[in-house]
Amino acid sequence: MFSKLAIKTTGSTFFSQQTIRAFHRPVHIIGFPFAGGQQRPGPEEAPKWLFEQEWLHQMEKKGGVSKEMIQVTNQKCNQAQDKDILEGHRKGERNWNNVYESCDRLEKATAKSLLAKQYPVVFGGDHSQGIGSIMGMKQVWPQTRILWVDAHIDANTPQSTLTGDLHGGPVAYVAGLTQWGKKPVLSLKHLIYFGIRQWEPEEMVLIEQEKIPWYESKLCTVERLPQIKAEVEKYFYPDGKKQPYWISFDIDGVDYQQFASTGTPENQGIPLDFMLAFFDTFIPESVGMDLTEVNFLLSSGETTERDKRIVRQLIEKITDVVHREKPHYTLP
């Protein structure tokens, strides 16, 4: 049985009602309004929705929060009958041109934010954004380890993918499992998964051959977090010399019964209370994060309203921890 999460309908759950006068790191929310790595319309609308929220405007006024919208080349999903998209299809890589160009813009924005000593939260958009955000982050923090929270492994290559949807392959691109014109930046030894429960056979072969650690959803409980943290540190830092993290969080990693507004939902996922505790545990040791695959077009009524409240709660939680906790590493 999954933990039940109480969602407040009014007021701020985590964000202080007083103006923040001092904070350890400013949060910079980078909107990535892009659906071109997958087949459903909707994820491109989530950043615009977020940026229009009064509660986010109030957070900006209090200080320590800023936002930026990436001007992607084409927001539409890869099924759109759009000449620009159709001409970008390659074998095993649908809409490649727009994914590449839009992620290149995100790469530059992510690196710029980190160099400004901000904590970037890249809010998508589909998970193909991981190509751009991680490429940009690695320019500033080349030894950073990746905590990948997702229902899927996202390491498909053009040869292994069944759909050609590039939101299923960001790990393959940043780790150099396929050639695409840029040098790989991620060692698979610097990657741990949380919540994966659906994959292509070739992806699980990769996990087993490379001995990449992964935590099933049933192991992701608040009570086990101290043990999980100890295991993560033992694996990543056997010599005790720690490096910071980047968190790549696909909302479909959360159980579908607790968050339904996403394009590739899976049951038996991570409970939301675990994710809130995960943020408390790992954000102080991270340099930034992705938050992807929110799609309110795929839910309706009270379910949509509940999920919007959950997104607010997640953003407020992330911001609160970033502001409150001193980073456990030296800023560049």
From TrEMBL:
GO terms for molecular function: arginase activity; manganese ion binding. InterPro entries: Ureohydrolase, Ureohydrolase_dom_sf. Keywords: Hydrolase, Manganese, Metal-binding. GO terms for cellular component: cytosol; nucleus. Its cofactor is Mn(2+). Mn(2+) binds at residues 127, 150, 152, 154, 250, 252. Belongs to the arginase family. This is Arginase. It comes from Halteria grandinella.
